[in-house]
Each structure stands twice: as structure tokens, then as C-alpha cells.
Amino acid sequence: MSHPFQVLGEANKPFLESCRHGDLAQIKKHQEAKALDRELLTMGLREAAQGDHIDTMRHLLNAGAKPQSPSVVDEVHSVEAVKALLEHGLTFETRLHPLNTVPLVHLVKRDDVRLVHWCLEQGADPTFGCPNAQSFNDLEKPDQSPKKGSGAVLGMASRRSSPEIVDLLLDHGANIHSSNVLHYATCRKDGRALPIMDHLLRRGADVNEFGYPAFLHFGGTPLHAASYQGNLPAVKWLLEHGADPGVEDAQGSKPLDLAALEEEDEICDVIYEWTRLDDTGKADYRR
């Protein structure tokens, strides 16, 4: 069964293509031909943002498109585009439904130093976002309003951005000890996990920090995260930098248990061999 938005998009391809190309004349013709509801206008705004067509964005916003849509903010990649959204009701503390995020979480994914620096200079708070989970029950709560003291922005930067973005956030008040930064860095699939982990360690990250990133329901250390994600280079890096493979998560599982659960045989071998070489008197974690 097709998603309602997909059906809406298929039925209005000419309008959305006009938005994608920033063709204001054609957009106005579509508006004259029939009334366009807010959802369709917002879909058009997303297309215009993707192409960085600022005049088109402002036109659609004036017509009623929603600046608070996370799918729109996800496509923004210039200061001028952010300005357009801010002029029409978005703020850096706006809660973006249904993802329960704030704009800066989305903007750091662009890995654009100029864009993030501008947002921070305009007052965006890198500690404002979804509250940090302190237990499994926190992860299960359906409605947690963003607030100060969050590590969501820095966590996303660790997962998707460069060391320069991480430094910007830290220099503007982000807390490296409440953001699960190494946990999220192990999620990287772009070949940049180890360089960002090196940088985070230099900035004070703890290789044995226990946290509750969204993908670890029972919490754990960065080694739990890397083992669960199947990131063998990150597992080796963490062990070499002092990660403790004997720490248990809230359910009593060690990193080796998670690797075994995910059938990550190489990681199981590495962790087992590391513990055996480290202390031959330790228990065989594979039992």
C-alpha cells in the first residue's frame, strides 16, 4: 500500500518538479489552476530547499508551507536557506515533529563549517535537544520535549560530521561527557570512524563511558556499540585505547555477547583473543 505522501507526490509531479528547479512562473501557474494544500506546499518547499532556490522557498513559505518540517530542514544546505525558514517562524528551539529533534541536529549532518558556525553565532544552543536517556525506560518514553543539557547535537556530529564541526560545538558549550560521542562514532560507514574517534579522544572522550544511545536499548560502552554495529576497526581501536571488554550493559551482556548475537565472528575472535592475552585467568566470554 502506498504512503499518502507518495500518492500526493505522484499526483503532483509537475508542481514538485517546478519547485525542484526553482521555476517560480510555473509554480504560480499551478497555484492559479487549483488550490494547493499545506502538505503539498511543504513537499514543494523540501524540493526547493534541495536545490537551494531561496526565492522559491520564500514564495512557498508565504503561501503556507511549513518551515517546521524535518524533511525540509534535512534538505537545507546554505545560510540563506536557514534565514528563509527563520523569517517564517522556525527557531533554533523549534521541536520538529514527529522526530522530536531540533534544527541544529539536522544541520550538522551537512558537515558545513560555515553553516554551523553561522547558526551558533545566531544563538543556536548546541546543548539543546532531546534529553539524554539515563535508562532503558527513558528510551521507551514516547514524548520527551527538547531541553538544555542534551547531547543530541554533538552525538549527531560525531556520527555524521568532521572534527571541525565537533570543535565548533565544543567551543560553544557542548559537553563531550554527555553525548555518547564515541558510541555514535562507531556507527559511521564513511571510512571516517577512526579519525573522528582519535579526535574525540584528544578532546576528552571516555572510551568506557556508559550511555544509552538510541540504538542500544540496554545501554553500554562504546565497545558495546561497536560490537553491536559490527565495526571491527572500531572494536580494535577501542581495545587498543583502554576499553574494558568486561563491562556489562543493563541486561548483563558484555560486548562479546552482542557481537555473538549479531553473528560478528571476527569481532568475537578479536575480543576473546584480547581478553585471553590480557589476562589468562579471565573467564572464557564465549561460553
Mind explaining what this structure looks like?
- The chain has 287 residues and is mainly alpha-helical.
- The protein folds into three domains: 1-85, Serine Threonine Protein Phosphatase 5, Tetratricopeptide repeat, CATH 1.25.40; 91-133 and 145-179, Alpha Horseshoe (Serine Threonine Protein Phosphatase 5, Tetratricopeptide repeat), CATH 1.25.40; 208-286, Alpha Horseshoe (Serine Threonine Protein Phosphatase 5, Tetratricopeptide repeat).
- The chain is 54% helix and 0% strand.
- The protein is built from 18 helices and no strands.
- It has helices at 4-11, 13-20, 24-33, 38-50, 54-63, 70-75, 79-87, 103-107, 113-121, 136-140, 152-160, 163-171, 181-185, 193-202, 222-229, 232-240, 255-261, 265-278.
- α2 runs parallel beside α4, α5 packs parallel to α7 (79-87) and α11 (152-160) runs antiparallel to α12.
- The longest helix has 14 residues, at 265-278.
- This is Ankyrin repeat protein.
- ANK repeats lie at residues 149-181, 218-250.
- Pfam families: Ank_2.
- Residues 131-156 are annotated as: Disordered.
- Keywords: ANK repeat, Repeat.
Number of strands: 0
Mean pLDDT: 90
Radius of gyration over all CA atoms, rounded: 22 Å
Number of alpha- plus pi-helical segments: 18
What is the N-to-C order of secondary-structure elements (H for helix, E for strand)?
HHHHHHHHHHHHHHHHHH
The CATH level-2 architecture of the largest domain is identified as Alpha Horseshoe
**Main β-sheet, in a few words?**
none
CATH topology name of the largest domain, in short, is Serine Threonine Protein Phosphatase 5, Tetratricopeptide repeat
What is the CATH level 1 assignment of the largest domain? Mainly Alpha
Count structural domains: 3
Which ranges are low-confidence, i.e. pLDDT below 50, for 5 or more consecutive residues? 1-5, 282-287
Helix content: 40-55%
**Shape descriptor:** elongated
Question: What portion of the residues fall into strands of 2 or more residues?
Answer: under 5%
Structural class: mainly alpha
Give the termini distance in whole angstroms.
Answer: 45 Å
Protein name: Ankyrin repeat protein
ANK repeats: 149-181, 218-250
Region (Disordered): 131-156
Keywords: ANK repeat, Repeat
